[in-house]
What we know:
By secondary structure, this protein is mainly alpha-helical. It has eight helices and five strands. It has a three-stranded antiparallel beta sheet. A two-stranded antiparallel sheet has the order 4-5.
Amino acid sequence: MKYNYNLTTKLNILSILYTFFDEFISGFEFVCKPGCNICCTVDIVCTTLEIQFLAKHLKIPKKLPTKYYRPNISINKSAQLYINKKIPPPENSDRSLIACPLLDKHGLCSIYPYRPFACRAMMSRTICQKDREADIHPFLVYVSLTFMQLIEHLDNEGHSANMWDFLTNNSKYFIKNQPFPGIIAPIEYRARIKSMIRRILNLELEDKKLSYYFNLTI
Ligand code: SF4
């Protein structure tokens, strides 16, 4: 699918999605607070568009990570397989859990307003120091997955990869993005996810609803 609008418009839409997500999750309770960064590891997967969103604000660290999780399939490809009742291929990469070099000396994210969606999706109901895993509300897991699907759809001429492969232009690990194949939330969350997507598609940019840009039927 080709879009007839430019990168600036896509970046503006991404910014609208980030803002909507922040508002949407504000009614849920989390224990996360500044300086709590156990989930800030190098295993961050994002899209080309998200890298373009943060690039201007990023100072590439001198010491770059070399070992980190690499996806072998994009979120929408995986969703497509799930919808077709097929099993995605097994992962061939482990999480390294090494601390993200973009944390500053105070333990804060140095690109916080511009961080990729995968970082935004980490919101825990309990303090996650012990096993380094965020305890995410099950409904919010599907909310986040849906946002990742929409971001990939928006960037469907781009790629997905680990953030560090993008930042080092390690293109052999880039995975081609795909359009949104449908909602993958279980039946108990489906109506709420559908209504959330409709709200998103009703938001406006430059006198047009986002449905015009996304070209999606829900
Ligand atoms: S980019 Fe920022 S929020 Fe994301 S893992 Fe790195 S330090 Fe944490």
